[in-house]
Specification:
Blueprint lengths: L6 E8 L6 H9 L6 E8 L6 H6 L8 E5 L4 H11 L4 E5 L3 E2 L4 H7 L7 E10 L3 H18 L9 E5 H7 L10 H11 L3 E13 L1 H6 L1 H18 L17
Parallel strand pairs: 1-2, 1-4, 2-3, 6-8
Antiparallel strand pairs: 4-7, 5-8, 6-7
Amino acid sequence: MIKMIQELSIIIPTLNEENYIGKLLESLKEQEFLGKLQIIVVDGHSEDNTREVIDRYKSNFGDLIVLRVRPGVGYQRNIGVSRAKYKYILFLDADIILHRNFLNRFVRKINPEERQVTAAVSWIVEDDLWSRLVMAMMIAGGMVVCFFDPITPGGCLFTTQENHRLVGGFREDIIAAEDLDYGRRSINGGAKYHLILYPYVLHSGRRLRTVGALRLFWFYIKSYLLIKIYGIEIVNKLKYPFGKYGE
């Protein structure tokens, strides 16, 4: 019988996330994880009330660290890992919401003896039927792609300290798709890949609202194809339509 993970470091990069980080921390507070949790929020000098929202939750967690560093998702995640005290790492985006008992269900599906990258499917928090339909198309398309080209979305991404060290962490010189690059380097370096369909996480629909459902769908398809043709560095030449993290 596989032993369940008992210690987990959760790393959350933030930048202007006052409208979202509280919902994530609230959902983490409601978890009844059967083990020890360390929560590391790595803030990229937010200019809104992100830090104040986080401070309101400090008393709810026995081990919550808030770091303030220069912005950059890859850099922030790497800094978080440098302060992680547990072997197992879970990266979460700040606009994620976890279902009650998500962590226990999630880690039960993980073999703690494997060097791995494991992602959870995310579903948007939107009531709009059109947005949900487009999201379903993106998830279905992503699952098909994963059969021959594994995708590792960073919204909810699990790995180990060992794997992070062996691949040299996230690239800090690309403005997007650093999670895709991280997963590919991990898998090419010998890590196992898993995509967990359930339990899934809830993701805010802010990108859908910002750029529109079809435009977002097309952006992801175009970006994926360009990366396949020209390599990951092409992302720095793309017009990135999302603004800063919290927008």
